[in-house]
Amino acid sequence: MRWQVTGVSSLTGVEQTAVVEADDAKGAAAMAKEKGILAMSATPIGPSATVQAPPLIYASAKSEVEPPLQPQAPLYSGLLITSLLCLVVGGVCAAAGAYLLLDVAAETELRILAIPLVLGGILACLAAFAGQALRDIARNGWRKN
């Protein structure tokens, strides 16, 4: 027997109607559920539709519908961790270089390392900021389909 099943989509919550082949109203509801429709009523159609089927009542059909998952922008956690590591290493290098430059009691051999340490620290910090900017640009440029 053919049945016209009315219900809501299990994905979107939009009301839908489907025609299925089943022996009874419960079978029609089960067939509709396989198609992703939460049945609220099933009505027989065709020449053998003289018997009125009792309505299927699913009181919580709409409350069971979950909204579809919204895609989210990737976190780019590898880029985040790498840029934070560059920031820490750069800060330590710049601080050590500044200490060697400003320390009056430092030996002459160590003072030679001060300027490369400061410059390396500054460059590492700039690389960290560039990594953060690249991550932000990638996340803001990401679009939901």
Structure report:
By secondary structure, this protein is of the alpha+beta class. It has 2 domains: 2-64, no CATH class; 77-141. The protein is 50% helix and 17% strand. The protein has 5 helices and 3 strands, in the order ββαβαααα. The protein has a 3-stranded antiparallel beta sheet with strand order 2-1-3, with helices on one face. The two termini are 41 Å apart.
Please give a handful of descriptors for the protein shown.
145 residues, alpha+beta, three-stranded antiparallel sheet, 5 helices, rod-shaped
Structural class: alpha+beta
Sheet bearing the most strands, described?
A: 3 strands, antiparallel
Q: Which blocks of ≥5 consecutive residues have pLDDT under 50?
A: none
| Shape, principal axes of CA atoms | rod-shaped
- What is the typical, i.e. mean, pLDDT? 82
Roughly how much helix do the residues carry, as a percent range? 40-55%
- Strand portion: 15-25%
Number of contiguous helices: 5
Per DSSP E runs of 2 or more residues, the count of β-strands stands at: 3
Q: What is the spatial order of strands in the main beta sheet?
A: 2-1-3
Alpha-carbon distance between the two ends: 41 Å
Number of domains: 2
Radius of gyration: 34 Å
**Series of H and E elements:** EEHEHHHH
Spell out the blueprint of helices and strands.
Blueprint: E1 2-9, E2 15-21, H1 25-34, E3 37-45, H2 61-64, H3 77-102, H4 108-111, H5 114-141
Antiparallel strand pairs: 1-2, 1-3
Helix pairs in contact: 3-5
